[in-house]
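ok so i was messing around last nite and threw this chain in just to see what happens. nothing serious, just curious
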Amino acid sequence: MENCTTDNLHSEPVCTLTGNEFLPQQGITFADQVLNFFNSQGGSAQSPWGEVLLDKKGIQSDKSHGIGRIKAASFAAIKDVIEKGEIILPLDYYATGGKRQMTGMIAAPIKIGSDSFICVVVVIFNLIEKRLYLHETFLTEKIPEIAASSLVRDSNTASPQSRGSIAKVLSKFFSSK
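result:
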């Protein structure tokens, strides 16, 4: 990774990736590859709300929401997004995982190969800890289209786990700036 320098959604990426991060390896699971990477970064990130755990529980939760090559590679950008990104959904109680939980969203531009993306990280909080819940990565130019085509509820009541809900929050953030 290189070019991890800024925190504005309309500027340079906080992280530049090749797109080949976390390719399948014989004898090591995807989750263990990502966990080893997170551990090499200290196993946590400093968010505007405090320390966020980057652990196997968060990886498994994130992975269970679906994963393709872009999302897989973008796991390498999560710490930079949390630490250098912008809050796009303030910390509050939202329906998450079938119950109301304290969550917030942070987004930042990243580059994968030659393409520009916005990576959004959803952080979930409980009384004991803050942890990665899930993340999504969107081609910057496709955000309005994704948000427009998503049949989701208003972002104040929608579950942040929905890709459409995340895109809708991100689209509202862009349009309000």
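not much to say yet. The beta strands are 15-17, 44-47, 50-53, 86-96, 99-112, 115-125, 130-139.
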